# Entry
Amino acid sequence: MLSEKIYRKLRNVLSPETISLQRANPSLDQLLFPRLAKIRRQPTTLASIKSLEEFYHLNSLFDEQACRINASNYTEPETIERAGLSLKNSGIAVIENAFTSEEVDAYLDHAEKIADFRIGSDSVKFYDYGARPVPLIHDNFALSKLINGSIESLCKKLDQNFSDYAYLRETPIISRTLPLRENLSSAWVTGWHVDFPTEFKANLILEDINIDQTRMQAIPCSNHLFLVPGKHYDISAKKRQSMRIFNFTGKKGTLYLHRGVTLHKNVPIENSRRILWSCTYTIEKKFPKLSPQHCENFTENSKTKIDELGQDDKSRLELFLKHKQVKPASKQELSYVN
Ligand SMILES: O=C(O)CCC(=O)C(=O)O
Ligand SMILES: [Fe+2]
# Structure
C-alpha cells in the first residue's frame, strides 16, 4: 500500500498533473501509465502514436474544410464517411445542418417540461443539466445514424475487423454552460485536457454559437499524441499562435464530435450562455457510467419506441436496457490511468 503511494508521488513528480504540452514526455508516460498505454495500443483507439514534432506537422496541415461537413450537401452515407475520416485524421468532426431548427425546438419543448429546464433560468453553476434526463421517446438524437454511423465508420477505418457498436455510455443531457465570475475557478474543463481514450462525445448545438461566445476548442490532430487523462496541458500564448486551434461554433442544429484522445477545452466568456444536447458513447461495454435513476428516467414511457428499434440500435442501447445486470464500475475501474 505504502509502495503504491510512493509510486504515485514519484510518478507525479516525473509526470506532473499540470504540464506544458511542449514539455510532455510521451515515451516516459507510456512507461508510467501502462494501463493507458495498453488501451491506446488497441486498434480502435488509435492508429499510431506520433511524436510532438510529427504532431505539429500534421496540425499545420489541418484542413478545416474536411472537418466541417455540411449535411445538406451530401447524402447521409457520404456525410458519415467524411465525419469518420475527419475523426480519424484530426480527432474532431462538425456536421452542419445535422438536424433542423424544428427538430431542435421540439426537443427543447420537452426539455422545458420534463427536465424542468429553463433556458433563461439563473442558476449559478458553470454546467447545469436540468432536473432530469429527457426520455428516449422525445429524443431523436441519441440513436441518430449521423452520430453512431460516424463513430463506427471511424472504428472501421482504424480496424477493418471492427464489428462492434457505438454504445451510449451515459444518459444524454441538456447542458447549459454559463460562465460567471463566481463559478470560473471551479471549472476544470477550461484547461487543455483529454477524456477517456475509448470515449466519444457528441454535442448538438441548440442555440447558435458565435466565435465571441462561450465555446469549446480542440487541437486538430492531437489525437495522435499519447496524452494522459486528468492532466492539464498548458500551451503558451506564443505556441498557440503557431498552431491550428479549432473553434466549435455553429448554427442551431449543428452536431460536433470529438474523440476522447483529442486535446480540448472550454473557452469561458463571462455571462455568455451555451446550450447543448450532449451525450458520450463508448466502443466497449466495460465502462458504463450510468446511474440507475437516470436509466429509469431515460427509458421511461419509451417501451414502444424501444420495442420498435432494430437489433443494431437495441445493441447500442444495451448498457441502458441491461443496466440492472451491469454492475456500476468503481471509480478505480473508471480510471484508465491507474
Ligand atoms: O464545455 C466544454 O466546451 C468542454 C467540455 C469537455 O471537456 C468535454 O465535453 O469533454
Ligand atoms: Fe473533456
